[in-house]
Design goal:
Layout lengths: L1 E10 L5 E10 L27 E5 L1 H6 L1 H4 L7 E4 H24 L5 E4 L17 H19 L5 E6 L2 H7 L6 E5 H8 L4 H18 L13 H10 L2 E8 L7 E5 L1 H5 L7 E4 L1 H4 L7 E6 L6 E2 L21 E2 L2 E8 L5 E4 L15 E6 L7 E4 L9 E9 L8 E10 L3 H11 L9 H5 L14 H6 L1 E2 L5 E5 L8 E8 L4 E9 L1 H4 L5 H9 L3 E2 L4 E2 L4 H7 L7 E12 L5 E18 H8 L14 H32 L9 E5 L5 E6 L4 H24 L5 E4 L9 H9 L9 H10 L6 H14 L4 E4 L28 H18 L10 H35 L10 E9 L3 E6 L4 E6 L6 E5 L5 E10 L3 E6 L2 E6 L3 E9 L7 E8 L4 H5 L7 H25 L4 H7 L14 H4 L22
Helix pairs in contact: 6-7, 11-24, 18-19, 19-23, 20-22
The structure holds zinc ion.
């Protein structure tokens, strides 16, 4: 080992120069990280494959300025030098450095770190008078030469640089070591990856623009980190997360501090008013604020904007001055990828000089305009583009950024869907070849078969009557059920058998990493993006009928009379499902209707009768058990809530022909109840085994003040809602029924949902035991175990259960694989992704609702007129629910011109001059026509039209047509699942679903491009997670309670 001294002249990001002398040890054995190694290096961890045409070493400035280019997964064999990594750390700060480290750690990216400055033969000391840039280039080149020699010339080495001088100096020194410019490299090696070339050009353009920028101050400089830190410690400054108001994005933002978000009172933190005080901070940034003198404190703006009458309890007229402050520094940027729209040419700013800098408008209202440098400004007009922000200097009114990818023309379906994905940091590329290589082989010619070794190790349940009940057309069957009588009928055995995903997905494998990153399958209104490759989700893990499958089972032995649990067994099994039922079919069997079961088609009538009776019996027993379990939870206070679920029905061209609200059936409940039971028992099991490292799910009780609107609305309708406990709430909701109008109860349940907190995953070591309670389900322990194909939490839970069982048997490590801290981080990641999934689902439903109505003329098309019911009264209007389409929104009774809605003798409404008066349970308008009154729970008729927005999402506008119920609705009251009408309804639903399935098949060729691109299935959303109906109803449909949730953090920059 050789010791030398290394003198570094570092320049900090703030321009200070520092001279550092470091002792420096050189070694001969520094790992090369290559499978082509000829020298027996000690290569641990990630290695570059040896079947590539070349390895590539990016020069320092390439790593510093073009890191995102190197993040393309297609680029393989990248060697990052230590020299370059250190340069990123010193010149680009922690965020960028962490990004580089993440990239290096990620096994899905073919890149390694080479400690070139510790390698005796590649290290080159800096020469006197040599500039830092030149020296760094020489280091990288020297490393390139070292690699070529170390791999004995078996691999060509390419150094890429942006320094033309380096190209000239080095390119002809050694054969086998090529030095080329980045542009040339991309053009000659990656012509099939034009996106990389475009990204390079766009980053380069942004860099050039930055150099030519002025230095005049638009904003105050941010304070250096050490000053901020000292200020926070001394209490002079406050640290928190910036939340920009959704409806007043230009002017209002709030700082959510640690204690304000913890306090049950929900203190609103600090108000930041105006863009000068916001000082370049953006939504989600962790910022430091200084409070302004009390004389400058302001109140929140309280008038309802035209934007949207979002519902939130506690939006009173009071406008008490709040602590008000200004941002003095940003600790952590939350910059992510943003979707922007390039405005039409005439609307753009006058262009400065001959540059091509366009102010693009982000899709998210809360993000300021971003200045993009581009050569294609004309071509991009009216397009949505994914961009990244590079910087926001104090001299600039707007942040500077560069374009990354053009999504397409605004308003087109594919563009809008991509927009929704990007805005929620949902990254769902096609599964890579390397990931697919991990999968077991299975083809029609050579189907996968069970392994005899596994059969010997597993409990064999292939002779049990096992069946699945799912939505029609479901491919990913992750749960099955069984029930049978034991001991002469005195005992019942209930079984829940779940797909054994962890058998196929090894912890830490590439597939596992991808699934963990996604954390869930994403369901949009017209498609889904799977968490696992299709070979698993639709085949090997899917518990299909008539084939042997591995499962994780829970078997309860129950007393046949009391249904008390005698004992429970958990473990790995092998099953063969006999029937793949869908909900409507199972319900029809339970009603004793004559239906065809496809598994029995070929049997003779006698045998068929026997089998059918056996199956129906099992379904009946299951219903009986589920009713009992449900009653048990009801006594504990379980809530039944209402979410609006609508699905779009598409025609061959992908156009929406109808929006169909989902119909509930009892068999949904039966399946859901069994799954809840399994989840509960598994939660108990893993929590016992791992008191501090088990992944559970809790649902905190709601905050009482959020019940304000519910209680008041109910009171107006003559009902009393008791919110003190979940039991009281559930009971009072059950009593709040209008026999004339079933919608009233539905609305009250919807409002209850609105007031609920979010159910969340957590690690048992991170919470006191008394906080484990699941309020909505009324269970003391809960987790997710039953859907490992589409939820990563369940995968984690399967592994925990396996470890717990191994420990019990005395084999295996008997400990959880993750520490409490790691598990808690995982829980947060999954929670974050679930929020993104819900937001994306909601946005895509709204998108489809808008697309549905965009096609129609609201003045002439009958389908644009619908019945609506009033569920909230506001100062200048009401909030209504249109049950036919599952649409909620404001109806204004007073417009900007001061006109009010007046209804004539026939109920027809028109705008007239007049006034509005609001009371707690009604609102009246007075005009020359007289007085019109609108009460809570009144039915009215509205016209639905689309409010088009070029740069943002479209939205629906509701306008009052008549203050009477919609006529066709009055003639034929909304269909109710009555005993008589039910089978008709079921048939209708089945028919529609079948049509949708056929249409999907018919549409396939048309969508083949996307299918290739994502290698994922696209199906109409017939599969919302129905077995979780109740839990899904707890979703935060509009949880934008003033403090919007912090935007998702993309995994790549975590
Ligand atoms: Zn080596």
């Amino acid at each position: 080992m050789i010791k030398t001294e290394k003198v570094l002249h570092l320049k900090s990001s703030r321009g200070r120069k520092v001279r550092v002398v470091r002792e420096h040890y050189l070694r001969e054995g520094v790992a090369c990280g290559s499978c082509a190694c000829q020298a027996a290096c000690d290569n641990e961890g990630k290695r570059l494959p040896d079947d590539l045409t070349h390895y590539v070493l990016p020069d320092v400035s390439v790593v510093v300025d073009f890191l995102e280019l190197l993040e393309f997964r297609e680029l393989q064999g990248i060697i990052f030098t230590q020299t370059a990594c250190q340069a990123v750390q010193t010149s680009r700060g922690r965020r960028q450095y962490n990004r580089l480290r993440t990239l290096l750690k990620d096994p899905r990216h073919d890149c390694v770190l080479f400690a070139n400055e510790f390698q005796e033969y590649s290290y080159c000391p800096r020469e006197k008078g040599e500039s830092q840039d030149k020296w760094q280039s020489r280091c990288v080149y020297s490393a390139a030469v070292w690699y070529f020699n170390h791999l004995a010339g078996l691999m060509d080495i390419v150094m890429i640089t942006d320094d033309q001088e380096a190209v000239t100096r080095y390119s002809s020194l050694n054969s086998g070591v090529y030095v080329v410019s980045v542009q040339e490299y991309l053009q000659s090696f990656w012509p099939e990856l034009p996106a990389a070339g475009e990204l390079y050009a766009s980053v380069r353009q942004a860099l050039q623009e930055k150099e030519s920028e002025g230095k005049e101050g638009e904003f105050t400089e941010h304070l250096p980190p050490e000053v901020l830190e000292a200020g926070i410690k001394s209490g002079r400054y406050i640290q928190g997360t910036l939340n920009v108001s959704k409806h007043r994005a230009q002017t209002e933002a709030f700082i959510r501090t640690e204690d304000s978000s913890n306090k049950s009172s929900g203190g609103s933190g600090v108000l930041v008013s105006g863009d000068k005080n916001r000082n370049r901070a953006m939504h989600g940034d962790v910022v430091v604020v200084e409070l302004l003198p009390k004389s400058e404190w302001r109140g929140k703006t309280s008038t309802l904007t035209e934007a949207r009458g979002e519902e939130k309890s506690g939006e009173g007229g009071d406008s008490q001055p709040l602590p008000t402050g200004r941002v003095v520094g940003v600790l952590q940027r939350s910059w992510r990828d943003y979707v922007v729209t390039f405005p039409p040419r005439d609307a753009t700013q006058p262009q400065s000089r001959n540059s091509q800098r366009i102010l693009a408008v982000p899709w998210d209202h809360r993000i300021p305009k971003i200045r993009i440098s581009t050569q294609q400004a004309d071509a991009l007009q009216g397009h949505r583009v994914m961009v990244r922000i590079d910087s926001w200097e104090s001299s600039s009114l707007y942040p500077n950024g560069h374009s990354v990818r053009v999504l397409g023309r605004a308003g087109e379906l594919e563009t809008e869907v991509q927009t929704i994905l990007i805005e929620n940091c949902i990254h769902v590329p096609a599964f890579s070849d390397a990931q697919l290589k991990e999968m077991p082989l299975s083809s029609p010619e050579k189907p996968w078969r069970v392994d005899p070794v596994q059969v010997a190790e597993r409990r064999d349940l292939r002779d049990h009557l096992v069946f699945s009940i799912d939505p029609l057309g479901c491919e990913d069957v992750d749960d099955t059920l069984s029930v049978r009588r034991l001991a002469g009928g005195t005992l019942l055995e209930l079984g829940v058998h779940i797909a054994d995903v962890t058998h196929f997905v090894g912890e830490g494998s590439l597939t596992d990493l991808e699934a963990r990153t996604r954390a869930t399958t994403y369901y949009l209104a017209d498609r889904r993006y799977d968490m696992l490759p299709a070979v698993l989700s639709a085949d090997l893990c899917s518990l299909l009928g008539g084939v042997d499958r591995y499962a994780m089972s829970v078997l309860w032995e129950l007393d046949a009379q009391t249904l008390a649990v005698n004992q429970v067994w958990f473990g790995r099994t092998i099953i063969r499902s006999s029937y793949q039922l869908h909900y409507e079919l199972a319900q029809a069997l339970l009603h004793g209707e004559k239906v065809e079961v496809k598994e029995l088609e070929r049997l003779g009538s006698e045998e068929k009768e026997v089998k059918l009776t056996e199956l129906t019996r099992a379904l009946e027993t299951l219903t009986h058990v589920a009713r009992h379990l449900r009653a048990q939870r009801d006594r504990g206070g379980a809530l039944e809530l209402e979410g609006v679920e609508v699905r779009a029905q598409l025609d061959e061209g992908g156009n929406i022909t109808a929006l169909v609200p989902r119909q509930p059936l009892e068999v949904h409940e039966t399946v859901a109840e069994c799954m809840i039971y399994a989840n509960h028992w598994v939660a108990r099991k893993i929590q016992e085994a791992f008191p501090h490292q088990a992944l559970l799910r809790f649902h905190p009780p709601p905050r009482q003040e959020f019940f304000g609107q519910l209680v008041e609305s109910a009171k107006a309708g003559g009902y009393t809602i008791d919110t003190r406990t979940n039991k009281a709430l559930a009971d009072s909701l059950d009593r709040a029924v209008d026999p004339q109008d079933p919608l009233v109860n539905r609305l009250l349940r919807m409002m209850t949902t609105q007031a609920m907190s979010e159910a969340l995953y957590f690690s048992t070591g991170a919470q006191p035991v008394d906080q484990f309670y699941h309020y909505g389900l009324a269970l003391d322990r809960y987790t997710h175990f039953t859907s490992p194909i589409r939820r990563y939490a369940d995968v984690v839970v399967h592994r925990l259960l396996t470890a717990a069982l191994a420990a019990e048997r005395g084999g295996g490590p008997g400990r959880a694989a993750s520490s409490n801290k790691e598990l808690e981080e995982m829980a947060q990641h999954i929670n974050n992704r679930n929020r993104a999934a819900k937001r994306a689902q909601k946005l895509s439903t709204e998108l489809f609702q808008c697309l549905y109505f965009k096609e129609r003329d609201p003045q002439t098309d009958r389908r644009c007129v619908a019945d609506a019911v009033i569920y909230s009264i506001r100062d200048n209007g009401v909030l209504v629910f249109v049950s036919e389409y599952g649409v909620k929104g404001p109806v204004y009774l007073k417009n900007r011109e001061g006109l009010v809605v007046a209804s004539g003798p026939d109920g027809g409404c028109e705008w007239q001059s007049g006034s509005v008066r609001r009371s707690h349970d009604h609102i009246s308008t007075a005009s020359s026509c007289g007085t019109s009154t609108f009460r809570l729970f009144d039915h009215v008729t509205v016209r639905i039209s689309v409010h088009s927005s070029h740069c943002h999402a479209d939205r629906l506008d509701l306008e009052l047509v008549s203050n009477r119920p919609h006529r066709s609705a009055a003639a034929a009251p909304p269909q109710q699942p009555s005993a008589q009408g039910r089978s008709q309804l079921v048939q209708e639903v089945v028919r529609l679903a079948e049509e949708a399935t056929q249409q999907k098949a018919a549409r396939r060729p048309k969508l083949s491009r996307e299918e290739r691109e994502f290698s994922q299935s696209k199906t109409p959303n017939l599969y919302s997670l129905l077995e979780e109906v109740r839990e899904l109803a707890l979703r935060d449909l509009d949880l934008d309670l003033d403090l919007d949730p912090v935007p998702p953090v993309c995994a790549s920059t975590a």
